[in-house]
Design goal:
By secondary structure, the chain is an alpha/beta fold. The protein is built from nine helices and 14 strands. Helix 4 packs parallel to helix 5, helix 5 runs antiparallel to helix 9 and helix 7 packs across helix 9.
Length: about 325
């Protein structure tokens, strides 16, 4: 089993600690949190071992899970990589693209594995339809959340929209050609609501909206391609695949038939795949263990995390 340590024992850090302890792929060694008094409370409440320094933690582990605020990701990750330890880092990978690029080079230099915590890649609804998404030409994504002070230290693009940016980049096999966007700061010092239009070289267009001042929660993406419409509800973990095919000469009484202006008839049918329930955070951590032990490529690489950040920064720069 891989010996794992965690940096940061806040809201999300506590979830990672619990899952690493439950996992049969890892041996949770302990954690480090810069707030020593808070760390003592966590250690006393849950029985985790608290380390006094990051250096002491690094001496005892094979892999470190970084769940600290984004502003600390770069320095934390750099220290971990230089210690020769494998790195799992929450999204966004770093605060700047330049920092992300430096981490990519360091990971190569020190021959360590790295994965970024873009958890929606492991959402069971998205996993079940990902292979159906091919040559999609229009994408619409909405990620709306009720206001929560946690996370408002960064623009909503880095807080929420980056989830959809990464998911979209994983299915559109083309380079980003142009980005346009607008954002508004309502409560925070940084934009709380944003809309972005991403145009790809192959002609695909993605329209993304993110808000952290909504009256309701929503996390939906819709993918449109020739003869198919695919909907993913990341919140309810449900999906829908609607396809079209040439209509039969003798349609059944309950067949749904559309006819265009040229007289071409198409039959609409549902081809919804089965959604297998999972714990997405546990899945991403355990697939990283697979990559380390089998010397394979992680599902969400540091390079992909850096590209999601680059596109997010292009959007932010449009404000």
């Amino acid at each position: 089993m891989l010996k794992a340590g965690v940096l940061g024992a806040g809201h999300l850090g506590k979830i990672h600690l619990r899952l690493l302890q439950e996992s049969n792929r890892y041996d949770l060694v302990g954690f480090y949190d810069s707030n020593k008094d808070y760390g003592k409370e966590i250690a006393a409440q849950f029985g985790y071992r608290q380390f006094d320094t990051i250096e002491e933690l690094l001496e005892n582990v094979d892999m470190v899970d970084v769940v600290t605020p984004t502003t600390f990701h770069f320095e934390n990750a750099k220290q971990i990589i230089k210690a020769g330890k494998h790195l799992f880092v929450e999204k966004p990978i770093t605060s700047t693209v330049e920092e992300a690029q430096e981490l990519l080079q360091l990971a190569k230099d020190y021959n360590v594995k790295g994965q970024v915590g873009h958890v929606e890649r492991f959402n069971p609804a998205f996993k079940s339809v990902k292979d159906e998404i091919s040559n999609t030409m229009f994408i619409e994504a909405h990620r709306l959340a009720e206001f929560n002070p946690r996370g408002t230290d960064v623009p909503v693009v880095l807080d929420l929209m980056i989830h959809d940016i990464d998911a979209i980049l994983s299915v559109v096999k083309s380079k980003v050609k142009h980005v346009s966007a607008s954002g508004v700061s309502v409560i925070s010092d940084t934009p709380d609501i944003a809309n972005a239009r991403i145009e790809f070289e192959n002609g695909c267009v993605a329209n993304l909206t993110a808000s952290r001042i909504s009256l309701k929660n929503m996390r939906k993406a819709r993918f449109f391609q020739k003869d198919a419409y695919i909907s993913v509800d990341f919140l309810t973990k449900k999906c829908e695949v609607v396809k079209m095919k040439d209509a039969p000469e003798q349609p059944g009484d309950f067949d749904m038939i559309l006819q265009n202006a040229e007289g071409v008839k198409k039959q609409i049918y549902f081809d919804n795949p089965e959604v297998t329930e999972n714990n997405a955070i546990l899945d991403e951590l355990e697939t990283f263990a697979d990559a380390i032990e089998n010397n394979t490529t992680p599902i969400v690489t540091l390079e992909q995390g850096a590209e999601a950040l680059r596109v997010a920064k292009l959007i932010i720069n449009e404000f």
